[in-house]
């Protein structure tokens, strides 16, 4: 096995963001009153803001960090209604009608992106591709066959095969025809311009920290300003949560990884995902005459403390075996939120908070689901009927998500370094250690200074774990991430780790 860990010693960065001329917008420095406030500039928030400005609404869009720097900036960007294996389960749980609606919501979303990009001349590398989910094991064949049978029942254009255009031996694959892949950041950067052209206001580095839900919702920002609106959409990945903690109880975060490589072998058409774990997700990247391939996978519960460097290495080995790696371009990771019934939550947050909406729980398929969510939210705000309102309904009855549990030896398991005291910690590494009965997070920076922080996540107190590739502290409960020295990178936490 090649030693590739050092290939991944550079900080991860997003291929999508790096290959886009990113627009920039000001920080909010005054109080505002508007019709609709959208919080969060990922695919769900930007598409909602675009759709509502197009319908003539007065919209303000705020982003707490850089635009498109959340999960949408670190995705694989298949735009498809083939969401791994899903339709047989939806039919069993909710019946054929609901399963068909899910397919149609996502198919309409693909067409929405295609038509919107064409309407505004956005070059977002949109390409039609067939989507494959494949098994390499005899035991997986029945599941694939059942999925294809579900396609037949739902009149989805697809078929069963035992061969891939890729040089990977398989037992069976379910194929969905005419799906797509695109460049999400180029597409969304194009929509931001359209929002502005239609009178929408956009602010970056403007973190929402709290909101009141009295007569009209009022959102307060970290820098002390407030925005009053008739309607507020929390498109913040994990929603700004009310007292009842519905979202905390019904979703779990899972990480996955991507690498972009220049491949030695030519790439046929198609987008691929393995049925078995470790997951492998594959698509091409458009880069002139060269063959570029994006390989992703290694999905796992966020913050389980296993070595992330090893995960990148395993994806690299797979990519090298399949395509021959001529050059490694970028590597990156992110997490998404999974509901227990595989359906997202989109709509009004609760009857106690009139005018407050959210879209979340996209289960790693938020590019099409996020677009479907945006048109649904725009219809709800406009008081219009939408065929998918019940499909994504918040508050539906379902099994609660099990809290991630790492057993009794948490501290050992979730620290990647075998360190018994802070003095043992090498430069550039982090570890969890007990101090006076408390779990502390230690990080020694490249200059040798030791940073000591409380290891309790500032969102709801779960322990964070060291991520040895991204050099972050990751929380298993709802996916918050903190830099090595404890600053929030990703919510729902809004406060840095407590420093000693
Ligand atoms: C590795 C990986 C690969 C994936 N591949 C695919 C794929 O191929 N196809 C697919 O359909 N889906 C895929 N997904 C899932 C998809 O990328 C996500 O579901 C989707 O991007 C989520 O979009 P979002 O708008 O909800 O969240 P985000 O993109 O995370 O946007 C939320 C934004 O809100 C901001 N924010 C958060 N809190 C606040 C606050 N308090 N105030 C202001 N702003 C705030 C954040 O900074 C962020 O920019 C993948 C996910 C991962 C992790
Ligand atoms: S993200 Fe909720 S407790 Fe950490």
Automatic annotation (TrEMBL):
GO terms for molecular function: 2 iron, 2 sulfur cluster binding; metal ion binding; monooxygenase activity; oxidoreductase activity, acting on paired donors, with incorporation or reduction of molecular oxygen. Residues 417-500 form the Rieske domain. SUPFAM superfamilies: FAD/NAD(P)-binding domain, ISP domain. The keyword Transmembrane helix does not apply. Keywords: 2Fe-2S, Disulfide bond, Iron, Iron-sulfur, Metal-binding. Pfam families: DAO, Rieske. One of its GO terms (cellular component) is cytoplasm. This is Glycine/D-amino acid oxidase. It comes from Terribacillus aidingensis.
């Amino acid at each position: 096995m090649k030693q590739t860990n050092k290939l991944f010693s550079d900080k991860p960065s997003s291929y999508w963001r790096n290959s886009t001329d990113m627009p920039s917008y000001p920080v909010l420095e005054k109080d505002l009153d508007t019709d609709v406030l959208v919080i969060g500039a990922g695919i769900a928030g930007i598409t909602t803001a675009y759709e509502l400005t197009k319908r003539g609404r007065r919209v303000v869009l705020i982003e707490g960090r850089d635009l498109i720097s959340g999960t949408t900036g670190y995705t694989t960007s298949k735009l498809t209604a083939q969401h791994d294996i899903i339709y047989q389960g939806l039919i069993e749980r909710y019946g054929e009608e609901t399963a068909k609606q899910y397919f149609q919501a996502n198919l309409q979303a693909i067409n929405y992106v295609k038509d919107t990009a064409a309407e505004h001349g956005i070059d977002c590398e949109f390409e039609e591709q067939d989507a494959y989910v494949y098994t390499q094991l005899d035991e997986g064949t029945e599941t694939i066959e059942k999925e294809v049978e579900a396609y037949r029942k739902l009149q989805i254009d697809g078929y069963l095969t035992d061969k891939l255009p890729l040089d990977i031996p398989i037992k069976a694959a379910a194929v969905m025809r005419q799906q797509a892949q695109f460049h999400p950041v180029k597409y969304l950067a194009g929509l931001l311009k359209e929002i502005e052209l239609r009178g929408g206001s956009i602010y970056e580095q403007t973190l929402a920290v709290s909101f009141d839900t009295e007569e009209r919702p009022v959102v307060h920002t970290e820098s002390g300003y407030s925005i009053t609106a008739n309607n507020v959409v929390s498109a913040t990945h994990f929603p700004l949560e009310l007292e009842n903690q519905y979202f905390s109880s019904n979703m779990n975060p899972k990480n996955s990884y991507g690498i972009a490589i220049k491949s030695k072998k030519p790439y046929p058409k198609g987008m691929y995902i393995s049925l078995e774990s470790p997951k492998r997700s594959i698509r091409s990247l458009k880069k002139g005459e060269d063959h570029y391939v994006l390989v992703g996978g290694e999905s796992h519960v966020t913050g389980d403390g296993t070595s992330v460097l090893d995960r990148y290495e395993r994806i690299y080995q797979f990519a090298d075996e399949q395509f021959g790696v001529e050059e490694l371009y970028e590597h990156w990771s992110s997490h998404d939120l999974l509901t227990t019934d595989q359906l997202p939550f989109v709509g009004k947050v609760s009857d106690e908070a009139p005018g407050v909406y959210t879209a979340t729980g996209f289960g790693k398929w938020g590019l099409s689901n996020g677009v479907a969510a945006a048109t649904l939210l725009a219809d709800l705000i406009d008081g219009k009927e939408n065929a998918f309102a019940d499909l994504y309904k918040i508050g539906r009855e379902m099994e609660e998500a099990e809290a991630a549990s790492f057993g009794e030896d948490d501290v050992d398991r979730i620290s990647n370094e075998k360190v018994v005291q802070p003095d043992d910690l090498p430069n550039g590494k982090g570890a969890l250690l007990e101090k006076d009965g408390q779990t502390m997070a230690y990080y020694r920076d490249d200059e040798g200074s030791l940073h000591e922080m409380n290891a309790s996540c500032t969102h709801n107190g779960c322990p964070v774990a060291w991520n040895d590739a991204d050099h972050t502290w990751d929380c298993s409960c709802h996916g918050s991430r903190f830099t090595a020295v404890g600053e929030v990178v990703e919510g729902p936490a809004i406060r840095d780790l407590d420093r000693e």
